[in-house]
Amino acid sequence: MDLAAANQLLCDELYDAALVAYGSAIDGDDKCAAAYAGRAAIYLRLEKYTNALQDANAALAEDGACEPALYRKGLACFHLDEFETALDSFQKGFKLLGADAAAAATRKYAMWARKCEAEIEDEDSDSEEEEEEDVPSGVKVVPCDVKYQYYQTNSHLTITLLAKNVKEEDAEIVITETTLICKLKRDGGKSEMTVISGELYDPVVPAECKVKYFSTKIDVKLKKKDAFNWNELLKGDLIGEPKKKPPTFKPAPASTTSTATPYAGKRDWHQLEKEMEAELEKDKPEGEEALNKLFQDIYGKATPETRRAMNKSFQTSGGTVLSTNWGEVGKTDYEDGENRQAPNGMEWKNWEGEKLPQKTSD
């Protein structure tokens, strides 16, 4: 299967089929940077960030100026907590856009670069605090200087302990149905600190809970016994407040207040993106850029069927037809002489300069 077919499947959001198609394209030409970059995009959608990074690097090995590969490498590195590498990729990709790039393209680079800079700033701040803390020798229990954050879905809650280079034998993590204890050892076991200790907000299933150790953090993934969002991690954090079981969903009134995220971090990404929106609103697109933005808005809000219609009609007609009616587009072969149409005053020709059959203008 060729690269164009793989790209079409990606546009149609048929990710499983697109993965196979890109694999076939790579088998046919293992030096095709566009095929690696395309497959990296699918892995990002599937949240397989390590695979996405590998394909982005493979694309850049063949073509160091492949802008989509640089952007996708940045995304993969960001989700793998490699913020400095991500920032470097975003900066290189931004330079390749050029001065005449569309506002939407520059906006996405600016947003992700600012996110990387904010994360790097937070990491540097944490490192400085750790260096300033001097743990006295001979003390078994020391104050905790390790921060943690958590996020959740209805079924799981994942806690990230922001501790670097901790070996499994230097950590004591005990999970019962109703309690969680996280302790870390330092100085070869001479000192110990308690990061988390208390009764969980709601029961969990210990057999389905997992702990993973990384070079920059420790992830503790809890499987909730009942599927609903917790108000807090530990019961004691909200004394006297009753637990909230799964709510019945009702339409909520529109509000301009940003919703709090489940992360325990200080960074308000909603506010950051709102500020960037305000900055970009000052520069209203004009001319061709305004038309492109209109098409992007239509495509972004369209159904999968409408997107397929737009993609097929525009690509197979050579850019002369853009239709949102899949019922019509699905039955039409725009490459056939009876349906092939050229703009007024122009005509279709092949690469050899021979005139091709085309539909006459009314």
Automatic annotation (TrEMBL):
Biased composition (Basic and acidic residues): 330-339, 349-362
Listed Low complexity bias regions: 251-262
Every CS domain range: 143-234
Biased amino acid composition, Polar residues: 312-326
Disordered: annotated segments: 239-262, 312-362
Signal peptide positions (record): none
UniProt family annotation: Belongs to the SGT1 family.
Protein name, as recorded: CS domain-containing protein
Organism annotation: Aureococcus anophagefferens
Taxonomy of the source species: Eukaryota, Sar, Stramenopiles, Ochrophyta, Pelagophyceae
